[in-house]
Design goal:
Length: 153
């Protein structure tokens, strides 16, 4: 029995080393139409900034983007977290897009100095699908109700 436990722990550690640990990504997909790709990325960037996701790095050729981390430290182990947004844009025809938003989440599991980001031990957590829904719906609203650049309306 003890040998089986060691094998399971070893397998889990091996998965973590290979980057296979953590729950699967959860995307919130929405349809967007009547906007050009440049204006869509402008609205995406603005909306992410409004929701505390800064430093969006966009790969336009791949149709993807990823922000820096939004960090919230907590004085107890497991209470602190950080999140970053991932965005994907897929063309669906003339000025029609499938927009996906994912909010990746990690929690701080350090026991020593949990309020120091440099000491944090980040572990994968479930994606924040609720926050992804809010961001995705806010992007759609900005495009529909005139908060987007004039060229996007």
């Amino acid at each position: 029995m003890r040998g089986l436990l060691l094998v399971a722990i070893g397998a889990l550690a091996g998965c973590r080393v290979l980057g296979l640990a953590g729950p699967p990504p959860r995307w919130q997909d929405v349809a967007v139409r009547g906007v050009g790709v440049d204006d869509l990325w402008t609205v995406v960037t603005t909306t992410l900034n409004q929701h505390d996701f800064h430093r969006l790095e966009v790969d336009r050729a791949a149709g993807t983007g990823k922000t820096g981390w939004d960090v919230s430290l907590h004085p107890y182990s497991g209470g602190g977290w950080r999140e970053r947004a991932h965005v994907r844009v897929e063309g669906m025809g003339e000025r029609r897009w499938k927009l996906g938003v994912r909010i990746e989440r990690e929690r701080n599991e350090t026991l020593k100095h949990p309020l120091e980001e440099t000491e944090a031990e980040w572990e994968p957590d479930e994606d924040n699908i609720e926050r992804a829904r809010v961001v995705a719906s806010r992007i759609v609203s900005a495009l529909r109700f005139g908060e987007a650049p004039a060229s996007a309306r």
